[in-house]
Amino acid sequence: xxxxxxxxxxxxxxxxxxxxxxxxxxxxxxxxxxxxxxxxxxxxxxxxxxxxxxxxxxxxxxxxxxxxxxxxxxxxxxxxxxxxxxxxxxxxxxxxxxxxxxxxxxxxxxxxxxxxxxxxxxxxxxxxxxxxxxxxxxxxxxxxxxxxxxxxxxxxxxxxxxxxxxxxxxxxxxxxxxxxxxxxxxxxxxxxxxxxxxxxxxxxxxxxxxxxxxxxxxxxxxxxxxxxxxxxxxxxxxxxxxxxxxxxxxxxxxxxxxxxxxxxxxxxxxxxxxxxxxxxxxxxxxxx
Length: 288
Ligand code: MBD
Ligand code: FE
Fold this sequence. Notes:
Layout: H1 3-31, H2 39-59, H3 64-79, H4 83-90, H5 92-100, E1 121-122, E2 125-127, E3 138-147, E4 157-161, E5 182-186, E6 192-198, E7 203-204, H6 210-218, E8 223-224, E9 227-233, E10 240-245, E11 269-270, E12 277-280, E13 283-285
Parallel strand pairs: 1-5, 2-6, 3-12, 3-13
Antiparallel strand pairs: 3-6, 4-5, 4-9, 7-8, 9-10, 11-12
Helix pairs in contact: 3-6
């Protein structure tokens, strides 16, 4: 394969990934009820956002070329389907901080753009769907789901999704089987689970679209540390959306999405007598 065809393939994947993230988001939003518009709230939030931008323009003496570059870039974000990516990378961490500030249980963090519903359902002890030759270090992830008062949460749902060893998410990169590295596990009567998967690689957000243009122009990097995504839920308890990370990843300190918290670092150990690694983590849910 020549360098050019490799670039073309990576580029196609980035564009698909943005379009799919936009489509997935809108599909899920249409399922949710609309509710009535609180005009006072909209006026306050939109008014403050517009004022903040006006203040920056005046304080920084924004030029017309800069204003036009901004306009062109905003148009491109939409064309590339990268609003979910942009918002989840640069703003969602603050939304999550506000939303989970009252919690006493396990820490959450951002969902990101690559969650989908309807993954295969597996028992408490199972192997996530993967290819026969799935690259990467085998990882056994075990733990318990319980309430803040210590009650084991029998039948809790553990939804897990993550990138493969090359940093690609199924349903967002072509050529990956539909449910690869995505599943919902059902905890046993003691809230316990044992999930077989592979360790994901550090992940570079797609750099071929508008977000990549911004990253390049600003001289930033595009990296997120390797991470596993989860949604943990049980009736009567607050759902936790979270991610877990691996110690020693150089991007734990400078995650482009600002989503790493010290409580979310795993402590993987070499598997005894087997290949790969074992990591243990318990999820503690707040009552509703
Ligand atoms: C990801 O995999 C991710 O988790 C986030 C937050 C943004 C882009 C890609
Ligand atoms: Fe991710």
